[in-house]
Amino acid sequence: MTSIGTGYDLSVSTYSPDGRVFQVEYAQKAVDNSGTAIGLRVKGGVVLAVEKIKHSRLLVPHSNRRIMTAGKYIGVASAGWMSDTRHLVKRVRDEARSYNDVYKTKIPASIIAERLGMYVQAYTLYSSVRPFGVSTLLACMDRNGPQLYMVEPSGQYVGYRGCAVGKGKQVAKTEIEKLNFDNMSVREAVKEAARIIYTAHDDTKDKLFELELSWVCEESNGLHEHVPQDLYDEAVQYAERSLDEDEDEDNEMEDDEDL
Description:
This protein is an alpha+beta fold. The protein has one domain (30-247): Aminohydrolase, N-terminal nucleophile (Ntn) domain (Glutamine Phosphoribosylpyrophosphate, subunit 1, domain 1), CATH 3.60.20. Helices cover 39% and strands 23% of the residues. It is built from 6 helices and 10 strands; from the N terminus they run αββββααββββααββα. The strands form 2 sheets. It has a 5-stranded antiparallel β-sheet. The 26S proteasome consists of a 20S proteasome core and two 19S regulatory subunits. One of its GO terms (molecular function) is hydrolase activity. Its main location: cytoplasm. Residues 8-30 form the Proteasome alpha-type subunits domain.
């Protein structure tokens, strides 16, 4: 039984006969059309990286960031509608502040993810609202160590060692699965995150993009910060060099096939 074109996508509170909520799927499509965002959790901390597509050369560099700080030790990276991201970041800040006021301690990552997931899921229940067209990656350090969660437009939240969202997520996931998280330092994770973003970037569709990198780790004293400029430059050079080496290998293989 098909539900396409039968009106079941007019309200988020309506299921189709085959059990689908089309507006949530449309929200996920908005995420899939956005720039790639990834998170890597290693033993020393968490690294966030985002491919921010630049639609004009006139944009001011480092403006309109897709990685934000939602509390001193909480980092949020996103793929999807930027306006929705800002709203959810404000929500995370309010939840962190409220928890600290009540319990006089930092909010654990699992509680942040749970409360944000419940908030996002509430917007899939009523016909007067629409789902958030954004997937968010939450990174922080709590008493249990580094933590990384992803909250989807449906409200589902899951903890990860490595995850990816956005238009290049399939390529990024393939590269993430090759990493050895147990034996990787945070600085190495920064370089690998940059390499994965460059690998997932599609030059044929989006020529201009800006790489954003941040971390929350022992080296940053448990605070979420954008990586230092020297490490950022080193990571970009590593990513570009790796990309050139892959292209050279592909060209050599093509030459061998021609022979």
